[in-house]
Amino acid sequence: MDRAEMFEKMVESVGVGVAVYGEDGRYVYVNEAYAELLDTERESLVGTPLWTVVPDFEADRFEEYWESLDDGETRTDETVHEFGDTQVPVSAVTTRHRLEGVPYHFGTIQDISELKARERELREKNERLEAFTAVVSHDLRNPLSVAKGYLQVLREDVDRDEVELIESSLDRMSILLDDLLRLAREGHSVDDAEPVSLAGVVAAARQTVRTDEATVTAEGDIRFLADESRLQQLLENLLRNSVEHASENGAPTIVVGALPEGTGFFIEDDGPGIPSDEREAVFSPIQSEGSRGVGLGLAIVNEIVEAHDWSIRVTEGRAGGARFEITGVEPA
To answer: May I ask the CATH architecture of the domain 3-111?
Structure first.
């Protein structure tokens, strides 16, 4: 096998589009994958100028681009390749090499259509979430401020511990509103994770959730990295969800605890549970009529889980109720 055959066999087996063009900007070689990506034949591309396939290049500026690369230099870029009616967003890698003293550009391309679609979907989702939270924040802050004002008036006439509890709850509502806006505006990532104790955050969450006659118990404790405020919001929402739905069968028992080997934590109740065909839908902020829960509670739980790069699943608890398991935590 001579060198030319070896070269062709190699580039045909790499699994990505490969093309070579010379100083005049015209393709001298493309492999089958490159042609297939543009839904054409190899023969149609050989001899075609680069700027016909890559609109980002301008014919009258190609010489300037060609001269800007040194031998052995590699550049990467994300651009669009098109040919005929086909348009494909690609990740491109271009390297300058010489063959028998003649300079060529060797380029590889990979289809990134799915990546771009996910980025667009995420961007649209964040825009919708930010717009929604801005409206919700405005509509909730006004009555919250009024409530705080009346509480100050009430404090002058009433000296009871319940007044402090009301103030604590109102302060917690303000924090949650701030966190909700921050979650929408800063995207999904958590950059300021710190060591937290599951038992400690559970205790704090219980202080702000009305549990009525429900019994809340804890099993074990683990320390892991998290945004403590968001973690508390997550636990508050799950506790509130269990109290609301498990109470259908009377005073519920709710258990919060650590999963084996510190892999995560769970919360479960002894209520009616969630049918298997509804478990994935409970995290959607818009649910069908008759489904378990309507609102942002579990949707926010899912956002917080994703923000930490954790995973959450719904299953059946030991007493037959709903069980939420959060895994993927990083031990502290």
So the answer is: 2-Layer Sandwich (3.30)
Count of CB atoms within 10 A of residue 184's CB? 22
The mean per-residue pLDDT over the stretch 184-199 comes to 78
Is the pLDDT assigned to residue 294 strictly greater than 50?
no
Distance, CA of 49 to CA of 208 (rounded, Å): 67
Please list the residues that pair with 94 across neighbouring strands: 75, 107
Using pLDDT thresholds of 50, 70 and 90, give the confidence band for residue 227: very high
Look at residue 184 in the predicted model and tell me its pLDDT.
Answer: 63
Q: Helix, strand or coil for residue 312?
A: strand
Whether domain 189-332 has CATH 3.30.565.10: the reply is yes
Beta-bridge partner residues of 90: 79, 111
* Terminal-to-terminal C-alpha distance of the chain: 58
C-alpha pair distances (Å), 22 with each of 28, 37, 275, 316: 7, 21, 63, 64
Question: Of 180, 203, 211, nearest to 301 (Cα)?
Answer: 180
- According to CATH, where is 3.30.565.10 located in the chain? 189-332
DSSP code at position 248:
G
Asked whether residue 99 carries a pLDDT value surpassing 50, the answer given is: yes
pTM (predicted TM-score): 0.53
Q: Which CATH class is domain 113-187?
A: mainly alpha
Weakest mean pLDDT among 84-88, 281-285, 304-308:
281-285
Provide the token pair at 27.
């393709």
Where in the chain do CATH 1.10.287.130 domains reside?
113-187
